[in-house]
Amino acid sequence: KKTSPLEPTEWPIVGHLPGLIANIHHFHDWATGVLAGVSYNFEARGGRTGLRYFITCDPSNVRHIFTSNFANYPKGDEFAVIFDVLGGGIFNADGESWRRQRVKAQMLMTGPRFRSFTAACSRDKVERSLLPFLAHAADEGSAPCDLHDAFLRLTFDMTCALVFGVDPGCLAIGLPVVPFARAMDDALETLFLRHITPMALWKLMSRLEVGQEKKMAEARRTIDAFVATTVAKRRADKLEQGISDSYDLLSSFICHEEDSSNNNDDDVFLRDTTVNLLLAGRDTTGAALSWFFYLLTQNPRVEQKLLDELAPVASRKQVAADDAGGGMVTFDASELGSLVYLHAALCECLRLYPSVPFEHKAVVADDVLPSGKEMKAGDKVLVFSYSMGRMEGVWGKDCKEFRPERWLAGDESAGTTKKLRYEPSYKFISFNAGPRTCLGKEMAFVQMKVAAAAVLWNFAVELVPGHVVEPKLSIILHMKHGLAVRVRRRDEVARHAS
Ligand code: HEM
């Protein structure tokens, strides 16, 4: 069966699976084409395998699911089983457990103390690790470097420092293999495959520890061991010296523990919370930075406009940087807060390449969506953020172009200062929408701005000719083949022309 030419054929017994398998190598773009061809809504059926999802990228449905009828669309038990590595942490939780975790995490993450810790950590890590790493790559001459890997290492170190209070040093020169970081990558890859493999099959593979599930089992052991060691160390710190001066989230959670006799339950809570926060913070921000620089290599006009915007801030700092000997400039988050074009360019990047390309929801009670689709209790919904950012009906005819200007209101030529245009979250869903909106959005912008501004100002980045950049199949929008680039110091190229 097929109702439109862009829709995959539905076969007896196996449903849409042959179409999915044939297009899995370019899954996100294929799914976007299908959704565009069927008015943004599609029911994917896996025939007798039992797989069935209602897939949507329709803003009116998104608004309904994430906000207006939020209580009817939790994450659901089945997804908690798929994402078992996250335990009962905030990403997996629903109802009262989710609400309590959210309140606690929000209290710790939005306070001024943690905010300034985030800003200081980000700047410090960029100055002490990212810039020296890129300087080393630039001095090496013609050898390409993988900027995607570098950004993931950077954000892993940054997030570990914020969450655990330890810097694993992933971005040290020589790029050491860090088993914990590798384990997180393996886990994410498996989580995607579990969405498209019948549950009975992947559960059997998991029990037998074969195939991809073998990797998952090993990853889980590595993650659990790392967290257990770190929690034990932080507890020991607390006993020995008190850790009230530490700003990282783990220390804050330990300080807020109500009953110190209940260490076992607390350890499970701390394990789940920290793994969730690490996943939330590391991969999302690292992936976004990678796509941002990929887009800049393809759009020199935007790159120049960003340099123009940075120039007045940088010129105040250049002398100090030259005096210090290195000649490289780093920026504080407070200096970048007013740069609207930088903010717009990051939003535009996340519109085209949302770090979380799809979201999942379950249906509690029968309901009718604004598109007219009847949902039954127990149904599963996938909301495709990647596709939503590329729909003409949502973003206009130029929706595939990288054009930060779409985020700006006001006309400089007419004397009005540019300011950011508000886009509702049910249309720009990259940070989720409604009560479950990303808790780290502000923190993510701080990290991205500090890293992006420093790299942009100090280095010219060029994509290695012929290198193919495309998304990887994962629940986070990583790059399948990395981002192979050559970097040069800006003072060796014509510096900041305008
Ligand atoms: C560019 C960077 C980021 C993007 C695009 C992003 C996006 C998202 C999205 C789409 C969700 C919803 C996920 C889901 O429910 O399945 C989410 C949730 C969340 N994010 Fe972020 N995020 C980013 C950075 C961060 C950072 C740095 C943190 C801090 C550690 C963070 C903390 C969280 C938390 C705690 C939630 C769960 C909220 C809840 O369920 O109530 N995020 N984020």
TrEMBL record:
Gene Ontology MF terms in the entry: metal ion binding; monooxygenase activity
Record: residues binding heme: C438
Q: Which CDD domains match?
A: CYP86A (cd11064)
What Gene3D superfamilies is this protein classified in? Answer: Cytochrome P450
UniProt keyword terms in alphabetical order: Heme, Iron, Metal-binding, Monooxygenase, Oxidoreductase, Signal
Q: Which cofactor does it need?
A: heme
What's the superkingdom here? Eukaryota
- Which is a GO BP term held by this UniProt record? lipid metabolic process
- What is a single Pfam family found in this protein's UniProt entry? p450
Per the record's keyword annotation, is Zinc included, yes or no? no
Q: Which InterPro entries match?
A: Cyt_P450, Cyt_P450_CS, Cyt_P450_E_grp-I, Cyt_P450_sf
Family that this chain belongs to: Belongs to the cytochrome P450 family.
Q: What is this protein called?
A: Uncharacterized protein
